[in-house]
Amino acid sequence: MNKNSFFIFLLTLHTLFAKAQQDADFYIHPAFSRHASIYEVNIRQYTPEGTFKAFEKSLPRLQEMGVDIIWIMPIYPIGQLNRKGTLGSYYAVQDYQKVNPEFGTLADLRDLVAKAHGLGIKVILDWVANHSAPDNDLITTHPDWYTHDSITGKIIPPVPDWTDVADFNYDKKGLWDYQIESMKYWIANADIDGFRCDVAMMVPLEFWKKARIELDKAKKVFMLAEAEGPEYHRNGFDMTYGWELLTLMNKTAKGEKRATDIAAYMRKIDTTYKRDDYQMFFTSNHDENSWNGSEYERMGDAVKCLDVLCFTLPGMPLIYSGQESAVTRRLRFFDKDTIAWDDYKLQPFYTRLNALKRDNPAVANGVFGGKANLIKTGNKDVLAFSRSNEDNQIIVITNLSKSPQTIRLKSALLAGKFKDAFSGAPVDLRGSYSVRLKSWDYLILVKE
Q1: What 3-state DSSP class applies to 30?
Q2: How far, in Å, CA of 202 to CA of 213, rounded?
Q3: Which CATH number fits domain 374-447: 3.40.250.10, 2.60.40.2470, 2.60.40.1180, 3.30.930.10?
Q4: Per-10-residue mean pLDDT, the chain, length 448
């Protein structure tokens, strides 16, 4: 091999090593996400004022509840053209580098993020990369960045009934640079910690991968895709939506699916996703609440039992604004509709689940937690599983039906001294366990 060939060989090796190192680093989640839960904040409806300053007062309560990450719905000015309702959709962005004056100022947002950080809470912003408001200035300055009707030449929405937004054309690489620079703007100017990316499945994967690489140069961020599938974890995202589980839970609550169907789903994701692919599990969010119904409309008395699954299956749980007060109604999407907070009657429930997520390595996220091992129940309506990480173990038993069930379990996983996660009552397991669960009842046993 001559000197030139040897030099090229060494350069190729170096390039391959650098790429491998970049890819290895690329998929390491931010450390703060390892034991995290996430809380979605609807600023408009959170308080009568609907401002950053008014919401900021709730941060100590959320810290006490054990929230680690808050996802704030879009905070940008909302378009006037084709606006729906009196206030419009948060997702009709008129300017990607300004704050909606209804919520406050950039200084107010900075203060909110700084206070959250002071309490150990990270903040991610909702990012709308697929479309803008039809009166965004980009329509005039860069009309080629939008999708045009092939016959009329008019700029069109991404979906026909999304009449208040205009579809971006990601064939134009200048749009990529603009979007990435705009995302970096909020890191530089508000110190935010990442993004929840709206309809991520309607934007090219290559864009998201490039965006993540560029954003991580500014700050190691956390990225949540409004999309489902393992491919998003290979292209820029830490976490994706667990829609399939949500669908199963909705149908289980109606008696259309059973515990055996959720067990089959658990086996499926074990082969579909890598251990370190975070999925977000939830019983509600802004879309579900506003368009498909509150969790109580969809799930009735099963809500708490299904929330237990969201917190104990391998994934990150989400709480939507108002769930801690068991808000039973839909919130209007395009108009002011303040949450009726009442007495926060479910806050102790979520606080206990968040503490379990935070303190017990068995239920940590990704590879930091234990794999879910199903326990045979002999009952199509009862789901039981164990998660273990070294000396830490939890056992979860859920009655996914409206009828009381008597369960007799036998497994090598049922061994040792445990306590009930909610009551603290001791439970001594010696390879078997019998328990009677009421309708939609649940039990979490924590190894001592």
Answers
A1: coil
A2: 20
A3: 2.60.40.1180
A4: 46 39 60 97 98 98 98 98 98 98 98 98 98 98 98 97 98 98 98 98 98 97 98 97 98 98 97 96 98 98 98 98 97 98 96 98 96 97 97 98 97 98 97 97 98
